[in-house]
Amino acid sequence: MNNPLRDPRDRRLPRIAGSCGLVMFGVTGDLARKKLMPAVYDLANRGLLPPAFALTGFARRDWEREDFEEVVYESVKKHARTPFREETWKQLAEGIRFVQGTFDDPDAFQRLKETVEELDERRGTGGNHAFYLSIPPSAFPQVLTQLRDSGLSDAHDGAWRRVVIEKPFGHDLESANELDAVVSEVFPPDSVFRIDHYLGKETVQNLLALRFANQLFEPIWNSQFIDHVQITMAEDIGIGSRAGYYDGIGQARDVIQNHLLQLFALTAMEEPATFDADDLRDEKEKVLRATKLPADLDANTARGQYSAGWRGGERVGGFLDEDGIDLESITETYAAIRLDVPNRRWAGTPFYLRAGKRLGRRVTEIALVFKKAPSPYFQEIDGVEVGNNALVIRVQPDEGVTLKFGSKVPGTTMEVRDVTMDFAYGNAFTESSPEAYERLILDVLLGDPPLFPRHEEVALSWRLLDPITAHWAESGRPEEYRSGTWGPPSADAMLAKDGRVWRRP
């Protein structure tokens, strides 16, 4: 198909998927409607899906194929990032199917199998199908068992079958291992794709290029030059309508165990032998295995729960005021932890990770804060302390990199002030970054797994987090912090004891 969006010089997503189908469970949820369906359309619009592609929805709704097609259409019109093109939509719509049923109904999965076989015959999907579980984790075992019992997970004659699992991958190490055991009974390891959408973000991938493609940075990416590292994920919103999921889970399990520990591993790991999946995963797992928790968890972790305050000039309630939240809930909405990596590269350089809701603004960043210049003259000038240099990788919302350093203020005296050099994706490149789910869905269809963690990586993350959440469970209530601020006082105290302060993004 002649696609004007498919620039032959475009190297962002240069590969095109072969004949295949995507079966989506949970098509009535927000993730499917706002992210997954628009991402499928955008891939088709960029010319990265084959004419033989098929999209099948599975849900309990009493829909016909035309009803689901209308849902996909509305989702695409409202949330797609590329322009709507009738030619693209017509080709995509021809491959749309819908199967009505519940997860506990074997007959529904038999109908799904018949639909998949019909697509192989009439649409030319070639027996290649991925099953996307955009459903609550509690339903994973049931759906996986049905896929096995119905024969849908079986690949034949050189075709492939794959499964996509959304985080959370369990709620602790034990449940993660139990989930992996169920998945492993149905799909081989190389057919399991655990999705963390942060790994599809352009800036996260650019972290590897920033580190290893630039002689400017790699020689100073160590404890000899770096004083400490701060990894922040701040949200200015509350839990919204997620009370049923969030209460009892909390910010550490919801964000730190996956998103922030992934950013941590990519920041701290050694250069892989190649950037193939196994080599990249090996290095991430090595650094997670080497990471240690401080002995004193009271002093080196912090947790909080937002109270009433202000957001964007509007008065907002606290966590305990949210619909569906138990007034006695001790679920944290803010979590901060210190990690240490006592290896040759990082010994003596602490990593501080924090994540919270209803904070001052929405931002995710990795900040490498450098040691002070050794010159005694530039430690303090006229009673004013000279600031630390910092390299800040901005993951969202304004993707890019900022370098903060000291510069002399024009004039007759030696006055030094912090200034910044700024790189922004939107300014440096004419093309926009693909949405994270575009990249990840395409990688699933191509069978390319570098951005997807193996179970060992998930297990290592839980081994780090489980002692912290167990300690908190025995430590009373989280500390309150007012909505619109930057977290509880204990988080500031956590850095202050080390002679450091949190960056203000």
Automatic annotation (TrEMBL):
Positions with a binding annotation for NADP(+): R60, K167
Compositionally biased spans, kind Basic and acidic residues: 495-505
Pathway: Carbohydrate degradation; pentose phosphate pathway; D-ribulose 5-phosphate from D-glucose 6-phosphate (oxidative stage): step 1/3
Residues annotated to bind substrate: H197, K201, E235, D254, K357
Gene Ontology CC annotations of this record: cytosol
Domain Glucose-6-phosphate dehydrogenase NAD-binding, first and last residues per copy: 23-206
Positions of the catalytic residues: H259
Keyword Cell membrane part of the UniProt annotation: no
Enzyme Commission identifier(s): 1.1.1.49
GO molecular function: glucose-6-phosphate dehydrogenase activity; NADP binding
Task performed by this protein: Catalyzes the oxidation of glucose 6-phosphate to 6-phosphogluconolactone.
Name of the protein: Glucose-6-phosphate 1-dehydrogenase
Record organism: Demequina activiva
Gene behind this protein: zwf_2
